[in-house]
Design goal:
Layout (H helix, E strand, L loop, with lengths): L6 H24 L4 H18 L4 H17 L14 H47 L4 H15 L3 E8 L4 E2 L3 E3 L10 H10 L3 E2 L11 E5 L7 E6 L6 H68 L5 H32 L8 E4 H11 L8 E4 L6 E4 L1 H17 L7 E8 L2 E8 L33 H11 L3 E6 L5 E10 L5
Parallel strand pairs: 8-10
Antiparallel strand pairs: 1-2, 1-3, 1-6, 4-5, 5-6, 7-9, 9-13, 10-11, 11-13, 12-13
Helix pairs in contact: 1-2, 1-3, 2-3, 2-4, 3-4, 4-5, 4-7, 5-7, 7-8, 8-11, 9-10, 10-11
């Protein structure tokens, strides 16, 4: 296959254009036009050679050949290189100079046009890269865009060496091949580029014999890594400058990603601080009330105990017991949700029968004659892989939550059903329901809606957050749905276990 700017292609183009000019000149002569028209035709042919070939020697050769062709075919005597007119050699000289100058100017314009087109392509490549980098939200996305620039724009493979430790060393490299072949690993050259804060490798004073060209990415005080194009042989000066500009854009993108990550970390820290503040406020407010009640009741028993009848003394002791149980349940829920979310407790999962878990939970749930609780067993046995103690605690919290947040007379129903690879444990009530705006918030710690229960007491807002933590620890989930015609259904999803064939 002929190269466009190869010697053979240039020779064929030159010969073809001069032959065409000769044929046109013969047509002009037959039409009775002057010799100047033929001369202009040959000058145009030389310009065509300058535009279609690398120029230089080909323009010179085309100019000389055009003079010889004009002398041989059109100057008297024709078909001879002799010239009868004494002024003809001067005409030949002028024709040669005009053709040579015109060809030279055309060649310069051609080179300038190619340079302008190359500059436009480089600018467009940088604009495309900048637009792609704006959509990157992670460091890996930025490096992928850098690899696309190396393989797509330059046609070279990328070797990316991230900084490690204090920024003076390099971590494990990542290679992006342009043609699927393996990429040369030149960590020593990349480390020199990092140490010098300047390009190293092919075409540079440092490791000039290396295969790739390695460019530090980021500020010298805190670089992000070193990017190398492999192989770098054959890169023009403009392409090397383009690679430096690409690395500059990537450095800005990585700085932006780091700033976003730092901002997110600061937001997480601020959220954690707000959570701690909410915890302190909730604990101080919600625990103070039962503690004050216990202390006050104890004072009454100590001071007026002998004068109280058995019924009054029993009511006071029952109040102390109820407040103590509320405190115990609150502390247990707080410890459970904290340990599960921080990974301090791992579920001891085993195969459990759903009926056993629900029945155990109902034995521990708060008994309230005003809120009848019943269990609808599934038609067939359902097995789950779960930690029984955690699941029972979650079910107890769901049942107690339904009893506590519904008016007297509302019934609570517990049932279970298989749903794909999960088993759904459902606790339904026929209370007033939960607004859509609250459905995502009620599972947050210390969120309890208005904070006041129908009986006038307060809730610490930990029960549902414990249920969510238990579900997540088992790889399941929890949600709340509306019940028709009114009420709510809390659905705890746990991994199902297949019932063995007997």
């Amino acid at each position: 296959m002929l190269r466009r700017d190869g010697p053979l292609a240039s020779l064929l183009v030159t010969a073809g254009l001069l032959a065409g000019a000769t044929l046109l000149g013969a047509a002009w002569r037959a039409a009775g036009l002057q010799e100047a028209t033929v001369v202009v035709t040959y000058v145009l042919a030389v310009i065509g050679v300058a535009l279609a070939t690398p120029g230089g020697p080909w323009c010179l050769a085309a100019s000389a050949l055009s003079v010889l062709a004009f002398n041989f075919f059109f100057a008297a005597p024709t078909l001879s290189l002799a010239a009868l007119d004494p002024a003809m050699p001067g005409t030949f000289a002028v024709m040669f100079v005009v053709a040579l100058v015109a060809g030279h100017l055309a060649a310069r314009l051609r080179l300038q046009a190619r340079a302008a087109e190359a500059a436009r392509e480089r600018t467009q490549a940088l604009l495309d890269l900048s637009q792609r980098l704006q959509d990157c939200t992670a460091g890996a996305d930025v490096i992928a865009a850098l690899a696309a620039a190396a393989t797509g724009t330059l046609g070279r493979s990328l070797a990316w060496y991230p900084t490690a430790g204090d920024g003076r060393g390099l971590g494990e490299p990542t290679f992006f091949s342009a043609d699927g072949s393996s990429v040369v690993e030149e960590g020593t050259v990349a480390l020199r580029a990092l140490a010098n804060g300047a390009p190293a490798g092919s075409g540079t004073p440092a490791f000039g014999s290396a295969s790739g060209l390695y460019q530090p990415v980021g500020p010298a005080t805190c670089p992000h890594g070193v990017a190398g194009v492999v192989p770098a042989a054959g890169l023009s000066a403009e392409e090397r400058d383009l690679w430096g500009s690409v690395c500059g854009l990537v450095a800005l993108a990585l700085d932006r990603v780091d700033a976003l990550e730092q901002r997110e970390e600061e937001a997480v820290r601020a959220r954690d601080q707000r959570t701690r503040a909410d915890l302190l406020r909730s604990i101080s407010h919600d625990l103070r009330t039962p503690l004050t009640s216990i202390a006050g009741t104890a004072d009454v028993l100590l001071e007026a105990g002998p004068s109280l009848d058995d019924a009054a003394r029993g009511r006071l002791l029952a109040g102390i017991r109820d407040d103590a149980r509320w405190l115990r349940d609150t502390v247990e829920n707080l410890l459970t949700v904290t340990r599960l979310e921080e990974g301090g407790v791992r579920p001891l999962a085993d195969v459990e029968l759903v009926d056993d878990l629900v029945e155990e939970a109902l034995r521990h749930a708060a008994a309230d004659p005003a809120h009848p609780v019943r269990f609808e067993p599934p038609e067939g046995p359902l097995l789950v892989r779960a930690d029984p103690s955690l699941v029972v605690q979650a079910l107890v919290n769901l049942v107690n939550n339904a009893v506590a947040h519904t008016p007297a007379g509302c019934a609570v129903t517990v049932f279970a059903a298989r749903s794909g690879a999960s088993v759904e444990l459902c606790v339904a009530d026929d209370g007033p329901g939960i607004p859509d705006s609250e459905k995502d918030l009620i599972f947050e710690a210390f969120h309890s809606g208005s904070g006041t229960l129908p009986d006038g007491t307060r809730s610490a807002g930990l029960g549902l957050s414990v249920c969510r933590a238990v579900a997540r620890a088992h790889g399941g989930g929890i949600c709340v749905r509306d019940r028709r015609p009114h009420g709510s259904v809390f659905v705890l999803s746990l991994p199902a276990e297949e019932v063995p064939d007997v």
